[in-house]
Amino acid sequence: MTGPHPAAELSDTAAKDTRTAQKVSSTTVAVLAIYGLVAVLILASRAVSPSLGGLSQIETVFYLSAFLVFCAFGQGLVILVRGLDLSIASMITLGAILSTTLMGGSNDGLLYLVPAILLVCAMVGVVSGIGITFFAIPPFIMTMAVGIIVYSLCLGVTGGTPRGFPSPMLREFMQDRFVGIPSPVWLLGLFVILGTVLQGYSSLGRKLTAVGNNPAAAHVAGLSARRLTILAYAISAACAGFTGILLAAYSNGATLRMGDAYLLPSIAAVVVGGSSILGGRGSFLGTVGGALLLTTLSTILSALGIGQGWKTITEGLVILAALILLRDEVFTALQTRFRRTA
Amino acid sequence: MTNQLAMSTAPHSRRLPNLKVLAESALLIVLIYAVMAVVYVSVQPSALSPYAIEALLNNSLPLMLAAAGATFVILQGGFDLSVAGIISLVNVVIAVMPVDGPLGALANLGVALSIGIAVGAVNGFLVAGLRIQAIAATLATMIVCQGAALLILGAPGGYVPDFMVYDLTGSVFGVPVALVIILAVIALWSLYRRTDAGRNLLAVGQDRKAAGLSGINVERTEFFSFVWAGAFYALAAYMLAAQTSTGSPSAGEPFLLLSFAAVALGGTAFGGGRGGVTASLFGAATLTLMQKVLFALGVSSFYTGVIQGLIMILAVLFAAAVRYAVRSRRVA
Q1: Which residues of A touch B126 (CB under 8 A)?
Q2: Hey, are the CB atoms on A145 and B312 less than 8 Å from each other?
Q3: Which CATH topology does B27-331 take?
Q4: Which one of A222, B37, B66, B227 is CB 3.0 to 4.6 Å from B236, fit for a cystine?
């Protein structure tokens, strides 16, 4: 029973729950710590190479992390309701392939094609959600099976080699700058604001958190746990599709294995960001921090020019270090230490 | 905890022996496997030749062992992604070990098990000792192991002793070695689940708090579940090296999702407390057999994934339906 209890927020007249306040502050500290870690990494990378540690590297990190942030938002919502979305890789591929084949390198219909593709992806998410809620299939199995089916359909329909090109307008958007900052970074900023409001401050976000905290209690409180869970999977699939559309525009084409590189990092970003894999607790800003941390790390390691083996090992060790340092116990220990000295 | 469980189910098992046994044991997945085997033999009669059976068992064995390992962790309510990393790491270590003959194979086995147990112990320490979320901790160890595998062997290759490649994938007195290993694992599990450690594993998975209050050392149980898992992954990698006669730094990747699918097919509950290793073994064997059946039926290789995914969903639904039927009869 961690995090704000759903019953506590339903009754405004109840005495103020101080434990909630304490929890929130520890989450805030955890989120700040991640961003601190990112800043330290970027500054420290000056030692690695003079080209790093500057504004251009920060720009690159934001640009590249955008893809991960988009799909990790959906993953975060699914994890919030005690699920896991393993179909993300296939949904990214689906979004990318649909966008290149349907757009076919032209701008006609861009305005309705993008929402249509997102809708198709969301429907696939609804199918996963229905299997998980109404048929009680474990999320792990359901999303993996749906992922395999979608991937296999992509493979069969394209015959192994996806054709077509993204719309030139989207391509330009990925390369353009607005007020000196790449447009995808603006998009990332907008997405982060919307996502934070949706997950942390909207009634939908609070309902999802309540379902994740205690589905039975949420049901008693009058929430439709099933409908909310299905919605989380739909949003996740649509976010992955969105990532796919942008990835296809970024690399000017789609490939079948395009999404693979984002599945495990999307889970890692959410968990490193302090969300509980058991659901009911998590903040999107933490997830964004986790995504920035992972992206910063991989850009620095690439610049180091070390072999793939050492690169991978370092990546794993840094994730591990972040996990060990960002534990609740560490904050509690720090808190008591500070209280004693104060 | 376990006593209470036994008391609540005992009277019913007398009334409904068949359905009850079917729902709670590995029988259900064995049944699914048998049906699939009948389909396979009917479309491909040559599948009954001793050579084909031996090949099928050899193909299935690595995934079966990996799924058996994953079951230990899932039964106590945990999660272990390190399977992909451990299999890759052990696989390449075997491929670079300059040993040969039966003694070399034994040395390989020793090294493999040491690596698996060591990584499993690290996982156990991170999860049970430092209280890091299992999925996150094992994700990190998986990545580290994959990196180490790349360091040891940058590209597929290496050398696997002939004894492993030929003798361990062959037959002894007409019995395939793979079958001997499978039977040994089943025997080991049926012994283990009757020990205190085995009961604790299920009790912790059913209710952590209650298990702790009733005197079970929850941390210890968690820790050793990861150690068992690591040992089984190492064994899987060992048999994989024997079967493919080569090492690859990405050998473990296909096992990541498939071993969990196998566990779920076997009916072991994610979240813990219900299921068993034997069921997972058959779940894994079913997955491998399914691919063979689809190939024999001439399904275009592009679309096999569609059917594979559908069968996975249907198998889980079928098992759930049987369990539901049993439960509603029990209430009535």
Answers
A1: 320, 323-324
A2: yes
A3: ABC transporter involved in vitamin B12 uptake, BtuC (1.10.3470)
A4: B66
